[in-house]
Each structure stands twice: as structure tokens, then as C-alpha cells.
Write a structure and sequence with these properties.
heterodimer, A: mainly alpha, 15 helices, B: alpha+beta, Beta-lactamase, 7-stranded mixed beta sheet, 5-stranded antiparallel beta sheet
Amino acid sequence: MAQTGRVTTRGLRSIPADEAASASTRRVLRRQRIRYRFFTLGLGLDMPMLFIILVLMAFGLVMLFSASYANAYYRTGNSYTYVLRQAGFAVAGIVAMLAISTVDYHQLHRLNVLIFFGTIALLLMVLVFKGTPIAPVKGGANRWINIGVEFQPSEIAKFSLILMFAHFIALYGERMKIARYGFWPFMGILGIFAGLILLEKHVSATLIICAIAFLMMVIGGTKLRYFVGIGTVGVVGLACLLMFSDRFTYALNRVKGWIDPFNPPEGVDTWQTRQSLYAIGSGQLFGVGIGQSRQKYLYLPEPQNDFVFAIICEELGFIGALLVIILFALFIWRGVYIALNARDRFGMMLGIGITFQFGLQAVLNICVVTNTIPNTGISLPFFSYGGTALLMLLAEMGVLLSISRHSRIDKT
Amino acid sequence: MADSQNSKMWKRAVALTAILIFVGFGVVIGNLVRWQLVRGEELRSKAIDQSLISTELSPMRGTIYDASGTKVLAQSASVWTVAIEPNYIKKGDDIKIAEGLSQVLGMSYDTIYQKTQQNSYFTYVKRKVETDVRDKILEMLEEKEIKRGVILLEDYKRYYPYGSTASTVLGFTGTDNQGLAGIEAQYEEELSGTTGRLVTAKNAAGTDMPFQYEQYIEASDGYDLVLTIDETVQSIVEKHLEKGLNAYEAIEGGTAIVMDVNTGAIIALSTKGDYDPNDPFTISEAAEAAIPEQVEKEIARRLEEEQKAFNTLEYKLSLAEDAEEEAELRAELEAFERLSTEDILELNETLYDEYFKKAQNKQWRNKAVSDTYYPGSVFKMITASMALEEGIVTESSTYTCEGLWDFHRPDVKPIHCWVRLPGHGLETLVDGVCNSCNPYMIWLGQNLGRYKFFDYFEAFGLTEKTGVDLPGESGSIYYTADQLNLTELATESFGQNFSITPLQMCTAMCAVANGGYLVQPHVVDRMLDSEGNIVHTTDTSYKRQVISEDVSNRVTQILLRNATSESGKNGYVAGYRVAGKTGTSEKVALYEQEKAQGIDRGMQYIVSYGGYAPADDPQYALLVFYDEPQTENVSGGSQAGPIFAAIMEEILPVLGVDPQYTEEEYENLAAKTPNVVNRTIGEAKQILKEAGFGYEVSGYEGENEDNQLVYTQIPSPGAPIPKDGFVLLYTQEPSAEDYVEVPDFKGDHLEGCKWYAMQADVQVVVSGNTSEGYAQGQDIPAGTKVKRGYVIKVSFVTVGGVEAAG
């Protein structure tokens, strides 16, 4: 093992070296691999999870229709524009999800590295082709890539990271306690992803990817104290960066605007947050009734996207909002339950990673909409408009269901 | 896999999941409770507020009619406000809009273009454009295919069809159609109606939401007012008042009030030196021309003051006693600031504005209700009424006027009568009033005593505002019973030393005329809603009976005599038994004030004539009043009297009071010329003979009178002609020979006038006091060429023998 070089590169390189070094491990892996089949149709999938997914998807489509109705009309002249496209993706996504669920998730072991480098290539493409039709700049950020279909490579990066982490956590097992195994390689992978995504100025995705990484590492067995150092460095570094840059007052004003969105300091636009709160407040206990939202009439910008939850609050009231939250809580619980009952550690970590990814996204989205945290672009899974993101989500659900097929859960 | 490790991972996974679910969603639910349940109502109303756009629907302001109910004195008509919505203008449309609007509205292209570039949703371009301009704009918008960006809002503009007629009563409105003066201000609430409101839900782009959310509160138009003011009477009053104003050069204007003595309805009320309510902010040319001079004077005065101050300082310096004081004064002298050229220029501007505003306020002022004056001798009818009512005198009670009233106290100065020693001598009450004798009135006042006098003074409504429905009514200034000491009681007895408004005097006079009832003066007769239903009628109301009907009749008889043959005879109107009293008052306070300021224009007067007719059944009271006339021989009789008579003579027939002539009056009376045009000469002669007129044929020598038609006649058909006058019958267009020069009648008595007229081959009809008076005016100036037989109106007045200031 090379003792020189930077942490990140060493972490990456050491893995195959390690694997190669241990003949016994290789043998075990081969044996395991032989046991895995490509299709797993024979095993039942977790019906509660499927049910929760379908309910969320149906609910999401209904609310998306209501929320996007006015905006679609004013933008395109047809109120159904958004919902029809989303429904198309949902149908395709569900088919894909069911198909993927039949694929043995252990196939992902093999695809792991391919996906990893593919993702990095996509992330780099976004930066390299910035401003060209391949990587269009939308709303001041270039996080999209357009190769026939348009999508955000950062979405794929999340999955790629989960896959990578699950793979190594499964591989290292007890050695996760040692920094050389359980901390630095992971930080290396995270560093590459987070760094590239941050360069896209996609702060919310960076945060989510860091949070997923942290959660998976902690669960995987990395010692918490390893994070203390890097956490301190990160916080201090961020603080210094803010303090000594000209963005400091801006950031401070942003915080002020967050604390009191109704009287924001000059230069801070809290229109979206204000309109969101108007919508939420208008709902009160029982809501104004489905389809009756006032705020969706161009007051709340892009109600079909990140702020669809505000429209749910307005139309269905506190009760409706609570229902959505309960659905997501059930989703997280069932996802984690599937993961914990997975056949092996890889499946467990993969399941937890996928569940946490969307669970976190749901929590953070609702936090933004209710002004619990400052406004940053996080979409609400199953509800927010976005075809490729939905496809990605449902594909990952397929993986989760695939894990469930192998799990120890009783299936009825 | 080691189980221990697995279970540890389990524990960690479960713990983190729990944290995610309970903490994450817990905080979120907490916030939802806060926003939805705690602050829900507040946020909902804010959300509704931002999406509701309320449009004001302006109501039509009520119309003001004269007493006939058909003549419109003030009316609103639709006009349009042009505005643009810069934020909704499409790219490229801005230039088109600026071009189109600048052409139609005649405004500069740049001004409008700049407005289109503003970052706003609404900005005015031009207000109050007529409907045809609006149509042009609409046409232009269609032509240029501009769909959004220009809006036209309906608005109203006020029109006053009779121009300056009754302007101080009507008042005027401002830019937002709010009443600013007169009835427009007094009845603002009733006239303006209720603003309607159209509330619609709009999306953030300002267009209508797809769902129905509309609340429509209809605008209700203002009430129409029917005034007691009669336009015909008002015009007559204004015509004569104006004539007098010009003739007497009354600096502070003139006022006339015509009031129905029985109801308190004000039939006409005019303040001359008024304005055109269609254009109320413009002052008369004369007033505007006078401003520069006033400004110059004021600046000169200030410069002089400055110089004086400077000189004083220099003088002080020369007297300085020690070095310290000298240094101090020198420093002060050095620091002395003179008005620089710029200062003077600036002062010029500010003073100009100031005087302009003053002139505006002056023309808007309704003197009849807003100004107070010493009523002077007109008030003597009130004092006489008090004395008769109390029974302390009768018509024949005598008192000897020795030219002054002596209090027989060394500390109180005696008061002179206007006729100095030896005075009027032995007088009855009738003589006292007719001579306008001050000591007689003082004698009455002293006999009444301060308390009785004040009781009546109060009862006649002279201590309170009349409560007329006009804005800006002024209160009176008077002494209370306890303050009425010797001099005060004495002077008040003949109408001096207290200030009341002309309207108060007129109302008190109505009480004297109508049997003692103090009526409530009013201008609005009834109020109609937009469908013409009467919503309010002003009922005749009287506050109290001040004197008995008997006393009222007796005072009327005295005043009748006064107006017919005594000091008030210039108010005489043939055919109408007029009761009247003259009044002249000195503006003592002003005189003293000006003297203190070093201005010397001599004593200024207010002349007035108050009276009513017919004396046997009083119907209408008239008070004429001129402030600061600049003619010689200033007295109420000479200046206000003839105007009073002229007004009365013309308005009484209009008001339906039929004349009853005495035989002598009948002789001088003008008749109507019969129409004989296009008749044969024979027929014409027959008609004229039967009517009692003479005739003369001009331009036809032939014998056959039945073949020749009358081409034209002088006087024209329907024109006034003396009872014994003649008609000239022309068979062809009058030639140059048929024109004669009008003689100068001024200063001649009746017989003289008639002789001159005969010499000149014209005719005269007379008005005024012909038995004793002299010709004062003629409607066609001397020297004018008129056709032979033309009738000239000559008015008579008596000069002298009327009281001067008391």
C-alpha cells in the first residue's frame, strides 16, 4: 500500500489493491456473486412500501395538477401541460420501478465503478460545456445537462455516492472503525462529488449529499470523533469565508430576511417565502378546498416545483399537510425497515441511503416551505414537477423494492 | 458479518431514523401550527388583500336647478382621465403610444415617452378630456393595435351654464369634483353621492382570475338641488348691482339680497366683484392688472423701512458714548443686510402670488354672509319696531331734536345728529324715522333701557348666525346687555357700533315686514334623488315672533311714507307701494387703523338700502349694499336707493306682484306698443287710435292708405311707449333723415325732460321718483343717433335731503 499521495486518491486506489490482496475475500465474493441471479421475480416485494409509493405518487399527481393549473395556463395556454407530462413520466417510472425491482440489486456491485466514473464525467460535462445547449444555464445556475433528455447529474451523483458508500461499508465491515478504512476513502469520494456539485453552485444538493454521506458513515460504523475535526475545520472555514468576503453582509441580510420574511432588509427578496407563508396561513385547519388556492395564481412563483407543499397546505389545510407528513414518515419508516431487514450489509446500506436521500429531501423541502430553514432549492419527492427527477426517484424505489424482495420480511 | 456489529448498525440506523422523523417533522409540524392555526387568519387576510383590486366607481354629482326647477345652474358631464400602465406596455408599443397620445392630446412626445418608461403600474397623462378626445384615443389604439397600456377612466367635470350668475351662492368644485365654496361645499355630501366599488380578484399579473370573485357596490349618484334662487330675478339683480358697482366704483364690492319675507327663501343673492365658477381660479383682468402696482408699493415700503432702520443705526452710532458701544454698533452696521437684487426679485414673485391669492379669495367671498358691517340707519326700523311694540311711544309721540344728544354728563361726549344745530326740531316718530334722526332713536333707546333693547336685539336674531345653508357665515359682534353703557346703547339705537352680516339685517327686516316672524333664511328649496323623487323639502320655519302684526303694519306704513316722499324716496317704485329705509355707515375702525398706518383715503362708507314691497301685503324684501363707494355725496339714499328701485321695479312683475298705480303714476306709465307692421296704413291708424296713441307716417305721400303696408314701426312692437306717446309708421327703410340725436336729460325735472324730448322728436318713459326728483340716468347716452320716435328710458332720483352717517 502506498503511504504517500493525497488522502482522496489513496483511498480510491487502495480499494482494488486491498481486494486483490486478499484471495479469500475474492473467493467469497465470487461465491456470493454466483448465488445472485439476475432476475428475482420469484421473490415477493414489500407490499406496504409499494402501497406507500403508489399513494404518494397518486397524491403527488393530484396536487401537482392543482398547483400547476394556473401557472400552466398562463405560461402555455393549457392547464394540463405540466400534469400530463408528469403523469407520463410517472407511468413510465412506475413501469421502470417494477422492472428494476425484479433485477437483483447485487448487480449494482458490478456497475458501481462504471456509475461512479460516469457520474463524474457528467458532472464535469456540466462544468465544461457551461452555457452551451448541452449544459444550459437556467436561472443563474448550471446544473442541468441535456443529452437527448434533460436532467441534473447531481441527482445521479447522490445515487452514485450511496452506491459507493454501501459498497465500501459492506466491504470494510469491522474495519470501518479505523480512519484509514472507515473515514478517509469515504471523505475522498464525498470530496469529489461535493466539490464538483458545489462548483455547479448547487448548494442544496451539496448539503444533501454531505448529509447522506454523514448518515451512512455513522450507521456504517465510522467513529463520530473523526467528524469532529473535519466538522470544526468546515465550520471555521465557512465562517472565515463569510467574515472576510464581501458576501458577508449579503449572507447576514439573507439570515435577517429568513428570520422576518415580512420585513426583509433591502436587497433581499423574500417574495417567494412570503407568498408561501400566505398560502400556508390561508389554509388554516381545513384548507380552502382542493383547486381553490388563491396563491397559485402567479403569486407563489413556480407552485408546481419546490413550493407545491405550500399549495397543499392552502388547499387541504393543516389536516392535509399532516397527512402528507405522515405519508413521508411512513415512507421513511418502511424504507429503513426494509433496509434493516436486508439480506446483507450492502443491501442494508443501499436501502438506508436511498430512503434517507428522499426522506431528507422531503423534510428539508417542507422546512424551506414553512420557512424553518432559509430558502434553498430542494424539491419534494413524488410531488414536485420534474420528469427525469421523477424517473430517477422511481428507479431508486425499484432498487429499494428489489432489496425488499431479498429481505427477511414476511411477504403476504 | 458479526452480529454485534450488525446490531450496533441497527441501533444507529433506528436512532437516526427516529431523529429524522421526530425532530425533522416535529419542527415542521410546530411551524405549521404556528403559521396555519395561530397566524392563519392574519396571513389569509394579507393574501386576500394582495389579490383584491378595488376599482372606484365615481358617482355623478347632483345637478343644481334654480327655483323654476328647469333652469340648470350647475351640472356635471362626463369627461375622461387618460392614464397609462407603464409596466404592461409591450416592447415597441411605448413609442406608438407616445406618438399617438401626443398627437391626440397635443402634449409633447418626450413627456409621454418618459411616462411610458416609468417603473410603475399607473400614471396619469391628462385629466378631464372631453368625450370626443376619448373617442379619438380609442380609434388611435385600435389603429395602432395597442391592446394594453393605455386606460381611460370616467370622470366628471362641472359646468355652470349661466357663468358668473349666482356664483358666490353656487360656489365651485375642485379637480376631484369636491365642492370648494358656496352650495357646492355646503351640500358636498348630498351632491357628491356615494362612491361605488368594484372588487375583483386578480392574479399577480393583474388580470382577472378564472373563478368568479366579484363584489359590486353600485355608485349612487348625488342628489339634485332645487334652489330658491330664481335665475331671472338673480340676473336682474346682478345686472343692476353691477351697473351701480361700476358707477360708484365701490372698491370692496356690493351685495344684494332678495328674500321672500314670509318664507325666508332667498330669491336672489349676489355679491359683485365675483367670478365665473367655470373658471374660478382666474381673477378679473382689472384685478390682475392692479397687482404689479400693489407689489411695487409694498416693496417700496419695505425698502423705505430698511433705510429707516439703517438711518436709526447710523444715528445711534453718532451718539455712541464709549468705544465699546461704538464698536458694537459699528459691527452691527457692518452686518446690516440690505435686500439684494435677487431678494427683491424673489420678493416680487412671492408678493405677486400673495396678492393673486388675495384677489382670488376676495372674488370668492360671499359678502352677504361672510362680511359684517354697521347696518346704520336701516336699523332704525328695528328700533322703531321695538319702541312701538313696547308701547313706550306711538306714531305721534314727539321729541325735539336739537342736532345732538347730550347725556348731561361731563365724562360722556354728546352725540350729534346728521343734521347739525339746530337739528330737526320737534318730531313725531314718523318724522324721526323719515328724517332718519339720530337723537330721536337715541331717545327711544334710552326709554327702552339696555335690557329691553338687548332682548329685542337678540330676538331679531342679531346675536346668532342665521343658520342659512351657505358656508362661511360670519357671526355678529355686539355688546351684551350688561356692556350696553350710555354711549353703546345710544349708538346701537341708530345702527352703529355693532356688526352684523347683510343677511342678518335682511332677515330682521323680513320680521318687521311679515308680521313679526323671524324666518329661517335658506337657499335650497328641495332635494331630489336621481329618479326625481323628493328626498327633502325645506319647510318654512320661523324661529319666533318678535313683534306683533299690528306693530309690523304700523312700521310698514312709516317706511312706506319714507320711501315714497321722505329720505328714502329714491327707493320709490311706481305702481308698487314700497316700504324702505336708507342706511349709511362709516367704516370708523378701518379709518382709525389706516390713520395709524399713515394711509389717508378719508373716511370710507358702506351705503345700503333695505326695503320691501308691496306695503299692504309685504312679499319680497331687498337689501342693496355697496362697500366703499368712491363717488361724492355718499349716502344710502343717493347710491343704493336708485339701484334698489331699479331692481324692485323689474323683479316684482317677474315674481308675480302686480302693480297698482296711482293716477299720477299711471300717466307717466309706459305702455306696450301694439304691432302694426305689415298692416295697411289705414288699419294701423285705426289700431293706434283705439289704443290711445298718436301716429305719424313717414315716407309715404299717397292718398290711398289701404294700398300701402307698414314696413316698420318705431317704437318696435312690444317696446315700452309713453301712455300718450306716438308711433312712427315707416313705409320703407328709414333714411338718414329719419335719425335724430338723443338729448342729454341729466339734471332735468320731468317737464324739462318731456320738452327736450319733443324738441328732439323722441319720446321718454320715466322711472323713479318723478314728482320731486331729477333725471339721473338714461338708457341711451346723449348724442347717440336714433330713429325718430325712439323711446328713451329716463330714471329719476332725489339728491340731498337724505341722512348722512350717524
